Amino acid sequence: MEKKKRKKYEALLWSIALPGFGQFLNKKPFKGIILMLSEVIVNVMSNFNLAIIHSFNWNIQESIEVTNFQWLMFYPCLYMFGLWDAYRDENRDSLGPYSYLPLACSAYTVTIGLIYSTSFKLFGVILGPVILPILALIPGLVIGNILRVIFLKRQMNF
């Protein structure tokens, strides 16, 4: 029983490490290759790793300067889709309707966080293109789960 539960999250956790890994675990190599290549291209073209290094060293202005926002805008949807797809493929039989909503809403809120990352201040501090989008993940998950509950309740009433 515990092994089955562990497997339930294994593809998801590997997809957190790198989009595409979960698809390989689920024996979907074509999707895995496409997601991995897409992630690498977007990552390199947006200078995302360099932005992460600057952000985690609290050099926010340098993080903003090195980031190519035109490319980085692709990252939230690509990343969230990779997570959802890996989890869905592994757990197709146990997922209910609207299971995609938390990650889809998170893709939107993280993208909005990215858009405002150069101007939005929290306690007087600009958080930049890495930290603000990470924080924006939380409301996306909350909103997505609330919408899922609402839709499921509406579906039960019909």
TrEMBL record:
Sorted keywords for this record are: Membrane, Transmembrane, Transmembrane helix
Q: Which domain of life is it from?
A: Bacteria
Q: Which residues cross the membrane?
A: 33-56, 68-86, 98-116, 122-147
> What name does UniProt use for this protein?
Uncharacterized protein
**Protein source organism:** Evansella tamaricis
